[in-house]
Amino acid sequence: MSTPFALAVLSSSVMSGTSLLYATLGELVGERAGIVNLGLEGVMLIGASIGIAVCSSTGDPYVGVAAASLAGMAAALLFGYIVIGRRANQLASGLTLLFFGFGVSALIGRPFVGAAITGLPRLGLPGLGAFDLLVWLGAPTAVLLWWLLFRTRWGLALRAVGEDPAAAFAAGRRPDVIQYQALAVAGLLGGIGGAHLALALALSWDEGMTAGRGFIAIALVIFARWNPLWAILGALVFGGAESLQLQLQARGAAVSPFLMNMIPYLLTLLVLVFWGFNRRFAAPAALGRNYFGVE
Amino acid sequence: MPHDSAIAGRWLPSLVVGRGVTRAFAIALIALAVFALLLLADGKDPLRAYRDTLVYVFGNTYGFSELLVRMTPLLMTSIAVALPSRLGLINVGGEGQLYMGAWLATAGALCFADLPAWQLLPLITALGFAGGGLWALVPGILRAAKIVNETISTLLLNYVAPLIVSFFIFGAWRSAESSAYPQSPAFVDAARLPSLDGTRIHLGLLFGLVCLALYGFALGRTRWGLEIRAIGGNAEASRRLGIPVQGYMIAVMVVAGGVAGMAGMAEVSAIQGRLVGELSPGYGYVGFLVSWLAGGNALSILLMAFLFAVVSSVGDILQITQGVPYAVVNVLMAVILFIVLGQRQIMRAG
Hints:
heterodimer; A: mainly alpha; 2 strands; globular; B: mainly alpha; ABC transporter involved in vitamin B12 uptake, BtuC; disordered C terminus
């Protein structure tokens, strides 16, 4: 592998890994509080479409990112109302959120198909290259979340709710309030993940443009064993798989693009299989269960 | 999920049907109201839109027959979700299983094109079943061995199956007659499922209804059904009673995937007449919603599949007559589901 090729792969894996990293971190916070959101893909789509729409209307990509994160938060809180407030099944509600996000984003994005977008500007750091602000903030966000989850009282309460909501309630915490907070953070980060995809990588709207990244991010949470620091590595590896495929295609490798497009999904499945074989029980104990209060 | 199936599994046919009809009507009303609001927000006249739709769908036999055409794959993809759900498994892979069924059926139709119809049709039907079933076998084994959760594995495989189809229709199977639009060569007449004269209703509808009847009968009236429901109720207790839980998990996933694969076979053999890239507008996912709303009950599945066929036809018609984007249908289905999902828990709590 020549040096320019390796550098191109590395730099583009950082780029495509960033949107995965934000989405993974978001899902991770939610799952630590006991809520699995299969609709992350829908949240990312809403973030991407709002990001494009706002950026195209205002001309400012940062405003686009801010709007996308708020829209993602709103979508996650809607999901939260269904699963926390109404105690509906999390998996079915998550898939419904996927449908919702797919439809809503198609409606939002439709007027902006082919619209010209000024992407997130690249900011150079000496010796490290030039990336946009969200790339630079990716790893620090992961560290911040690690600190919040494992070194603060709020994080302790959040993890307690994910392990045993009844015990957390007995200790004077409100499981529902904490889960809403976790989902707000999750939606914010999911929206940012979608916005990065739209405003830094694709620079245009395309229906269903996240192409399963939301589900890969959910798998990455398992890969990261619910630890934000491991999520950095996971996002880099999967960003790498995607960018290797893009770079090979750009260089006209004689492999069918359809076969190469399978790589991220199959790699994800393989990693899950490998992880499943030597599993330690790292998942929050009450993940996916509804808390019906103290009966 | 086990909770839901326990309720729906009670053998009270009249009551379940009554509740199913009421619920279907309630959902239809909600759907119409939400649709009207969306149309108003878009500056369209909802009443005119509904009149257009009524005239188009129910005004002549062809419009109505198209509802049954659309319902056919939904029947099969809902069974693909409902059957594993009785076991406590969540199969979200209907979409991928449908594509793989279509793929393997196409392979059969192209390789054995000189067989007579009475041999070729059963062959490609079996191949459609096998394609979907094998695609579900991997998640089934991984779940039975407690290695990977079936929800995430079936979802990931949904993204792989259409790529396999594309790989073939852009490559080995690319038809020479249409260079602009990638698709397989047309099936020979012997590989086309027969249709009713003047409509697109095809034998696949009968397959779907038979599968549904078998599903209802097997679950309610056979030892297999009893054991499946027992596992869904308490897997650990069933294992201690000597029920082969892992074997059931794998077998049920294969059968479920196979039924979804038959939907794919029917689409290529009866509707398209060749393998194309855009086989399904999300039949696998809609099947999940249908099955969920129906609570796994066979008659409710029939009602809900019909209802969702109506909803998506309405979307089609409004797209043509009013220029409303089809995505509205996704939003509509999601809103209906959010309402139902939120409500059911309240009913249970009360």
